[in-house]
Amino acid sequence: MPPEVLSAPLIVEFPFTRSTGPVLGAFLTGLRERVVLGARGSDGRVLCPPAEYDPVTAEELTELVPLGQLGTVTTWAWNERPRPYQPLDTPFAWVLVRLDGADTALLHALDAPRHAVRTGMRVAIRWADERSGAITDIACFEPAPNAGAPGDSHRAEGSAA
Amino acid sequence: MTTAAELLAGIPELAGVEPVTRVTIPARLEYTYSPGSAQTRFLTALPDKRLLAERCPRCTRVYVPPRGACPTCGIAATEQLELPHTGTVTTFCIVNIAAKGLDVEVPYCYAYVLLDGANVGLHARIGDTPYADVRIGQRVEAVWNEQRLGPSLASISHFRPTGEPDADPESYRRWM
Amino acid sequence: MSGTDHLDAPTGLRDVAVVAFAQSSHTRRTDQLSEVELLMPVLHDVLKQTGLTANRIGFTCSGSSDYLAGRAFSFTMALDGVGAWPPISESHVEMDGAWALYEAWVKLQTGEADTALVYSYGKSSPGSVRDVLTRQLDPYTLAPLWPDSVALAALQARALIDAGHTDERRLAETAVRSRRAATANPHAQLRGSADVEELLRQPYEVEPLRRHDCPPISDGAAAVILAAGDSARALHVNPAWIRGIDHRIEAHQPGVRDLTESPSTRLAATAAGAFDAPFDAAELHAPFTAQEIVLRRALDLGDGVPVNPSGGPLAANPVMAAGLIRIGEAAALIHRGEARRVLAHATSGPCLQQNLVAVLEGAAGTEGGAR
Asked: Which PANTHER family does the record cross-reference, listed alphabetically (chain A) (predicted)?
């Protein structure tokens, strides 16, 4: 019989520093300054997170527009047991949020009680206290103030589509 | 190509701020590594100062460390055997750059040692001799690391010259 | 080389078929086996079925991911199980083996080879596959948040439920059907299931998905042999001909896509000729129950078409091999005479981002109808 199979801990780390390029560089700069930017595509749609190239024509995208600090949940999933490195260490909802002024949705965490979370819910950005130019400069989303009841305005000024 | 600064210049609340050009977000993944059956047999014999190998039943090549398969024939290398602690240097180099995380002083001599009876070189360091004297064909023997004997190749500290005459080139020419 | 033989007149394509398929018995852990020790018996099985040896194979292509087990260039070690001497014509994709099969199919189309060995393997057990898969995501806006594979699938499932395409009960029914089908599959990891009521009493993993909505964590390997024209006819009495194969990809950001639809599957299926005739069965690479709903809609598969008679990835999900296994299982239905025309699908990326569709057919006159 072969001896009991050996095992050993193996840690793999990825310490890479990535260049951000013009569009993502501007987007991450905005986050550091508490401004979310979207990129306007050739069809007029505003993409957030911004794309570097037009999804339809592949042209370089250069028109960035500031978006609202509020948005609407387009889908969600309740995460009762957060895993290591996720945005919150208490139960939270994964959400796709279409920020006011954008036509696509951003993935992030929503800090709200389970019973309050629903598709169409209005949410607001909670900024991290210390920001460095990263997606984690958004600490998470939270329920928008005065937006607890159904029938809230799902659209703010500047919103497309 | 547009720059981030140029894109930001068009946005009143962000015009003139120092643009982000790089982002470092370290990631860490934790695994439990298992070497499989063949390498486990090899590793667990090292504390007893035994060098286990495998022979391919078809081409009869002997592999050390064994990996459970003959890479030439693509079949299981099923026959177990034990090799002596002596071998022949088939190639070497002098390393002058310290590798990150490697607890070895530079310069050191890094070599392939063809253990007697094996058909593939074992990676090893050569020591106890001036590096200028290290040569292909030189006969060497394992020096065990008495303080660190365990299921790891660190059980072998290094190889040192035996003082025998150099090996006949025909004995290792095919396995360099 | 017989590269110009057997050209199909209308398309100019060579006839290429799956002539052999083998897989491991998939399990939660294989600590006692290195990758090559896991893979080699499967390679020997598939070669033995055809009587071929590695040095008589025209082209070898594999699919795997170093991230799964944390071993850089593990595919070069896995080649030890092939016997790559004298040096063979070989390639590797950091993709599911279904994409390795696509590359091999293209190689056979060029006429440079008449036979191909395709294999893939995945050992998820050394790491935490839910977390490892976050590393395939956009490194700027997604990966730093570590959204695991179950979380992303749960966002997709919620969108489907909101759109009225499914509900939690129907998802549980999909899980029960898959795992009960797997009782007839000796290679499957989960064979059999509790009933729907019992499953719906279980806690959520990431709501709305419960454990039964998620695939098992599997270690496993699979291999297929492709052959063209007369080589295929010489190697199998009833080759599973690949009548069409295509793959398409969508935007990576989940918030850009309508997660209830799979236009990439639809396009790939159209290009593969999937809508030209009905199917006797379909093998769909839907690791999460809700994804089967998306694929059925994209492929116009009604309740009359048996889906995943093998149990599918809900019964065994060796990541990087589970897509190739769908093609293998589809071919095996034809080889065994249990079906004449079968659809095989493979996916890659989060929320069905990339999809491959292959249409496999036996010779005309073969008894049709899957079990």
From this structure: BLR3430 PROTEIN, DUF35 DOMAIN-CONTAINING PROTEIN
Confidence of residue C73 (pLDDT cuts 50, 70, 90): confident
> Would you say residue C2 has pLDDT above 50?
no
Q: What are phi and psi of B43, to 5 degrees?
A: -70, -40
Predicted pLDDT at B12: 94
Spans of all domains in chain C = 16-126+217-235
- Kindly list the domain boundaries of chain A, sorted by start residue: 21-143
- Asked if A84 lies within 8 A of C131 by C-beta distance, the reply is yes
How many contacts, defined by CB atoms under 8 Å, are there between B and C?
80
Instruction: Tell me the C-alpha distance between A53 and A59, whole Å.
Output: 5
Distance CA B157, CA B142 (A): 8
**φ/ψ bin of C139: left (φ > 0), alpha (ψ from -120 to 50), beta (otherwise):** alpha
Cβ atoms of residues C134 and C68 within 8 Å: no
CB spacing of B74 vs C83 below 8 angstroms = yes
Q: Please say if the pLDDT value at position A152 is more than 60.
A: no
Beta bridge partners of C118: C61, C224
- To the question of domain C16-126+217-235 being in CATH 3.40.47.10, the answer is yes
> CA-CA-CA-CA torsion for C228, C234, C238, C243, nearest 10 degrees?
10
Chain C nearest-CA residue for A4? C32
Share of residues in chain C with pLDDT > 70 (%): 95
A49 neighbors A62 (Cβ within 8 angstroms): no
DSSP string, C296-329: HHHHT--TTS-B-TT-GGGT---TTTHHHHHHHH
Instruction: Kindly report the nearest CA distance between residue C67 and chain A, in angstroms.
Output: 9
Sign of CA dihedral B148, B153, B158, B162: positive
Taking a C-beta distance cutoff of 8 angstroms, is the pair C285, C327 a contact? no
